[in-house]
């Protein structure tokens, strides 16, 4: 695996030395409203040099940890099954080498490929999901491999009692009925996150962050903005809480930089990724 020429700030160590490996999954072919998330990973690499490697929130620095940025996968637009296979293969390679995969999406469907890889290695995998949308449809317009169905497809893999959802404030009625039977859903906020973390304990966890969990007043650069979201400060506190878990892989999705010409959404995405890298890094 070769180092990308242009990396996320501070993430340029050699692959063999890395504890975390970044890869981009620039895919948005099943997006149901506004496309554009395929540009997120390249935008975040470029704009990351507008922030510092040092985090005053944690008194830690990206230069003190070892992160390798492998660049973006070349994914076939229009073929979600093949794209998911490519993501699964990359995540599986990273996991088998004893490192944490960090994926930058892309639409939220890309999470399914990484979860498939993690579930191969960890038989009792749990998923912690931050999002505005439930993503629990069984199909969307007859398509089962859609960003609107990604958590249902993950449930197909991990089953009942293994998916914890927070910040959810949108979905059709059937999705909320399904969640009441099969997942743990905390609507609108992170109110019961601490209790969920305690319940999960040290079981292996895949953490997926859909950035539209944020209120569009703070994060307008996304394809499906949803009013009533959380603040950056609340999200950062929640990520800190999640870092108590045994994180075996993670991703950040649904930045669509073309819908925010001010650049503040991309800057926010870069900052939260920096914090996630520092919180989840294992020596």
Short description:
With 283 residues, the protein is of the alpha/beta class. Helix content is 33%, strand content 18%. The protein has one domain: Arginase, Chain A (3-Layer(aba) Sandwich), CATH 3.40.800.10.
Question: Overview of this structure, please?
Answer:
This protein has a single domain, classed as 3-Layer(aba) Sandwich (Arginase, Chain A), CATH 3.40.800.10. The chain contains eight helices and ten strands. 33% of the residues lie in helices and 18% in strands. The model has no long low-confidence stretch (mean pLDDT 95). By secondary structure, the protein is of the alpha/beta class. α1 (40-47) packs across α8 (264-280) and α2 packs parallel to α3.
Labels describing this entry:
alpha/beta; Arginase, Chain A; 283 residues
Shape call? globular
Low-confidence stretches: none
Biggest sheet statistics: 8 strands, parallel
Q: In what range is the share of β-strand residues?
A: 15-25%
Q: Any idea what the radius of gyration is?
A: 17 Å
Produce the secondary structure layout.
Layout: E1 20-25, H1 40-47, E2 54-55, E3 60-61, E4 67-72, H2 80-96, E5 100-105, H3 110-121, E6 126-130, H4 150-158, E7 163-168, H5 173-182, E8 184-187, H6 193-200, E9 204-210, H7 232-242, E10 246-253, H8 264-280
Parallel strand pairs: 1-4, 1-5, 5-10, 6-7, 6-9, 7-8, 9-10
Antiparallel strand pairs: 2-3
Helix pairs in contact: 1-8, 2-3, 3-4, 7-8
């Amino acid at each position: 695996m070769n180092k990308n020429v242009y990396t996320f700030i501070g993430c340029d160590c050699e692959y063999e030395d890395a504890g975390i490996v970044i890869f981009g999954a620039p895919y948005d072919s099943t997006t149901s409203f506004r496309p554009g998330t395929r540009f997120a990973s390249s935008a975040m690499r470029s704009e990351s040099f507008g922030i510092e490697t040092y985090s005053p929130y944690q008194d830690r620095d990206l230069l003190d940890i070892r992160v390798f940025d492998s660049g973006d996968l070349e994914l076939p637009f229009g073929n979600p099954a093949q794209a998911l296979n490519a993501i699964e293969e990359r995540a599986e390679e990273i996991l088998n080498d004893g490192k944490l995969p960090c994926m930058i999406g892309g639409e939220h469907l890309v999470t399914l490929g990484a979860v498939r890889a993690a579930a191969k290695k960890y038989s009792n995998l749990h998923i912690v999901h931050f999002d505005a949308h439930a993503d629990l449809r069984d199909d969307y317009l007859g398509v089962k491999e859609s960003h609107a169905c990604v958590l249902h497809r993950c449930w197909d893999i991990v089953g009942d009692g293994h998916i914890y959802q927070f910040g959810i404030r949108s979905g059709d009625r059937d999705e909320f009925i399904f969640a009441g039977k099969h997942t743990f859903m905390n609507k609108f906020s992170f109110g019961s996150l601490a209790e969920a973390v305690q319940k999960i304990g040290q079981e292996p966890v895949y953490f997926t962050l859909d950035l539209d969990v944020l209120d569009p007043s703070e994060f307008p650069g996304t394809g499906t903005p949803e009013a009533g979201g959380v603040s950056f400060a609340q999200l950062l506190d929640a990520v800190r809480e999640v870092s108590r878990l045994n994180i075996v892989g993670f991703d950040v999705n649904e930045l669509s930089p073309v819908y925010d010409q001010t650049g503040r959404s991309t800057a926010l995405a870069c900052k939260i990724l920096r914090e996630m890298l520092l919180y989840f890094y294992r020596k």
